[in-house]
Amino acid sequence: MKAFDMKAKWAPSLALMAVAVAGCSQKNEGEQAVVKTAEAAPVAAAEAPVVTVYSSRKEHLIKPLFDKYRAETGVDVRYVTDKAGPLMERLSAEGESTPADMFMTVDAGNLWQASNKGLFAALDSASLEASVPAHLQAENNDWFGLSIRARTIVYSTERVNPEDLSTYEALAGDDWKGRLCLRTSKKVYNQSLVATMIRTLGEEKTEEIVKGWVANLATEPFSNDTKAMEAVAAGQCDATIVNTYYFGRLKKKNPDVALALFWPNQDDRGVHVNISGAGITKHAKQPEEAQKLLEWLASDKAQGQFAELNHEYPVNALVKPSETVQAWGEFKADLVNVEAAGKLQADAVKLMDRAGYR
Question: Given phi > 0 = left and psi -120 to 50 = alpha, else beta, which region is 257?
């Protein structure tokens, strides 16, 4: 396995600190471990089980939830954060010796890849089935969505009349020539969007649309959604396609930015949605405790905070989005199973390459 920089961050009781430090002394060359401990817990809590999570979600989006879970249950959650690819490589390399009980990541494409590599164990959970809609979970029950993100259109309120917007497909039309900005096709978010379009529209029609997007680009694709939105705000282009939480972050930073969201395809399939989610690892040492944690994360006890921390939507229909997210308005979502984002990912990548989308 190729060495990679890794930040290991822990939320164990003080009794586990020696174990964590010992683990750091054996790190591979090139790794940089950072060990953290939570505040001292009551002595009784030291005997509680410890659940270890590998997460590609950043620390500030998971630590508050794990702290809350520990406060409610007395169960410690130990976590390692890194990008999805390196974490999957790590899980594969560790095999039966992995300490990870749960793998948490973003995008159904990544979850499907982990499942395809045999990294998850199938779950039988009435609680998860009740909390997570069928189209936001794996068909074989080995991973479940925990929050929803919509990938939609953001446009300039100074140069675009929202009545002139309609669908993702329409952005390929001649009237958008030189007016479109996009994030790179290398990012899984765009690969998943195109993959679900293939599932619904077919490969030939989807390739025609993507070629139209490329023809209408005002500049080369950007490395991230924020830069694409900033280009729209600066007048470099008039519209782009982004995950809604990036819009929420930008508006929080700059409330007066002249951008707005538009919900496309409301007269047909609906807005493309994706998820963050998690599954129990195949070689989990604490599978029952990990399942309890996963069920709790999908419950109404945690869903509001889980989604609000990143301006996302709860998967649990019993929980309302935050006020900020509610202010963006309601929309019809595409109900295609998000697992298609993984199953058709390779086809999407090939299609985007043929279309010249880099």
Answer: beta
Instruction: Tell me the pLDDT tens digit for each residue of 44-88.
Output: 445 779 999 999 999 999 999 999 999 999 999 999 999 999 999
Alpha carbon separation from 21 to 16, 234, 350 (Å, rounded): 9, 48, 44
The reported pTM is 0.87
According to DSSP, the β-strands at 259-262 and 144-156 are antiparallel
**What does 229-242 look like in DSSP terms, one character per residue?**
HHHHHTTS-SEEEE
Angle (deg, nearest 10), helices 345-354 and 108-116: 120
DSSP 47-72: GS-EEEEEESS-HHHHHHHHHHHHHH
Which has the closest alpha carbon to 11: 83, 68, 57? 68
Cα–Cα distance for residue pair 3/86, rounded to 1 Å: 9
User: To the nearest 10°, the Cα dihedral for 158, 329, 152, 194?
Assistant: -160
Tokens coding 146: 């925990």
Query: H or E element: which one contains 106?
Result: strand 102-106
Of 152, 186, 188, 189, nearest in space to 171 by CA: 152
Give the CA angle between residues 214, 110, 274 to the nearest 5°: 65
* Contacts for 105 with CB less than 8 Å, ≥ 6 apart: 55, 56, 57, 84, 87, 111, 114, 276, 277, 278
Dihedral, CA of residue 200, residue 204, residue 205 and residue 207, to nearest 10: 100
**DSSP-derived pairing of the beta strands 239-243 and 144-156:** antiparallel
Residue 217: phi and psi, rounded to 5, are -65, 135
d(CA 288, CA 311): 30
Q: What is the CA radius of gyration of the chain?
A: 21
Mean pLDDT, rounded, of the chain: 90
Dihedral angle over CA of 75, 76, 78, 83, nearest 10: 60
Structure tokens, 23: 């683990």
| 8 A C-beta contact, residue 81 and residue 7 | yes
Contact 245, 275 (CB under 8 A): no
